[in-house]
Amino acid sequence: MLKAAVVGVGAMGQHHARIYDQMPQTQLVGVADASAEAGAQVARLHHTTAYADDRELLDEARPDVVSVVVPTEFHHRVALAALEAGCHVLIEKPIATTEEEAQELIARADALGRKLMVGHIVRFDSAVRELKKRLDAGELGRVFEVRCRRLGPFPARVRDVGVVIDLATHDLDMIRYLTGQEVVRVYAETEKQIHSDYEDLLIGAVRLADGTVGVLDVNWLTPTKIRELTVTGERGMFLVDHLTQDLYFYENAEANQERWSAISMLRGVSEGCMIRYPVQKYEPLRAELESFVRSVAEDTPVPVDGRDGLMALRLARALVQSGREKRAITL
Fold first, then answer.
1. Superfamily classification of domain 2-114
2. Vertex 327 angle, CA 322 and 328, to 5°
3. Is the pTM of this model over 0.90?
4. What is d(CA 12, CA 67) in angstroms, rounded to the nearest whole number?
């Protein structure tokens, strides 16, 4: 059994604590939070100890694995301290505030032989996992476009970054993960309507190395939550509803299974049948933490490593720069 701890038990961190407490592979040995009241409340709920700060937790509880769920500006300091204390670390995305901080965390984890995982939770959505299997099997044929819509109200919890760093990092990671391709160029239009310091609306486009186009529609201005992803290709379009973990396929009738061959030319596009695939629903955060703990216990690579986190941050910062400078950014 691995000893687990959580630094930061706000809106997301309290769920890390809950799952570590419930997992048979882990023992929750402590939580730390800047709010003594919040820390004490979560500690009481999960029969563990609340610490005044992360250094006290590391010194006294000596955990094997630590979730870092503090505001982005503190990711680097808290994660570095945990690595130096001998812990394996999962950092909620984004990995850090700057690329330099992210690179230092990656280098230090490598030097110490510690696991460093970044919490890009959307990869653990059951519908996304099913979609990834079908794309890898070639069911869509050539992919033309990946389109992501991540819309909703302004979250009071976020003050240190804008919508690109906080939300679009999910979708940038998704585009790389689903296609297996790297981004070579980005362009963004951003607006600041409500957030006093950072952008709260993004319309972005990315070009991948193989020519695939990614489109991002992300904001904190929509009064209802929308979380959708579509992948369009030769044989039709897959649609993921992240809120319900449902996966749909809309067939291109001009390229259905009866007439399709690997060497045929795409004659056109027309409406075919729609399929809703049966997907076994599972809490994405639980799947993510189980994967992290399994990698530590079995000494296998984590599914989302520091370099994945660095690439998502690099692309997000390029989109912010593009929106600010009103020009395309080549990577």
1. NAD(P)-binding Rossmann-like Domain (3.40.50.720)
2. 80
3. yes
4. 11
